[in-house]
Amino acid sequence: MKKLLLIGALALVGTNINAQETRFGVKAGYSMSTIKIDDDQDDLNSRSMDPKHTFYAGAFVEHKLSDKFGLQGEVLYSPLGGKEDVSVSEGGYSFSEKTDVKFGTLLVPVSAKYFITEYFSVSAGASFGFILSAKQKTEVSGNFPEGVGIEAEDGEFDIKDDVKSLNIAPFVGVEYALENGLFFDARYNYGVSNLVKEGSGKITNSFAQVGVGFKFGGN
What we know:
Signal peptide: 1-19
CATH topology: Porin
Protein name: Outer membrane protein with beta-barrel domain
Domain Outer membrane protein beta-barrel: 19-195
Strand content: over 45%
InterPro entries: Beta-barrel_OMP_2, OMP/PagP_B-barrel
Largest sheet: 8 strands, antiparallel, barrel
Low-confidence stretches: 1-18
Distance between the termini: 35 Å
CATH architecture: Beta Barrel
Helix content: under 10%
Keywords: Signal
Strand order of the largest sheet: 1-3-4-5-6-8-9-10
CATH class: Mainly Beta
Number of domains: 1
Number of helices: 1
């Protein structure tokens, strides 16, 4: 009887060891980024900039703890941000201001994964975004009355000193993998960090990602 219990225990341990698997890979894809601005911490005065259509690319490591659960860490780069186009026309005069904000961001997402099937999984975690650069490009045009000036200024400006360096964004996602290592995934990252260094306003950066990748190794 003791021999049978010992054999059963060894078989169980062997199964758990076989279930553990570490794979490395690369991924890239499309990202849609938005910036929400709340000037007075009041929902009535909040607005969202237009989406910025951009990309992401990088590498990851996936470790399966069992057939159903796993952990994943990633290092990605993405130029996130947002756009805004304001136009006013009245009494024969017009004003137009286009703004493009770009946050060059190094993303470090960490997530837990649940494998519904061998090839389909869902995940939840947080993305830690380290903002390496921050720039704002503004274009102003219009037909102004004589003697009327404008506060907006044309050009590209470095706003890194006005923006905090860390953007934390919890996320949820899904992934579908093929037997050959190719996979497709999608996730939504909800920015919770206030990126404004000074003042009473609040700026947050959220983004959606859809992409493709490849896992090396494995069965």
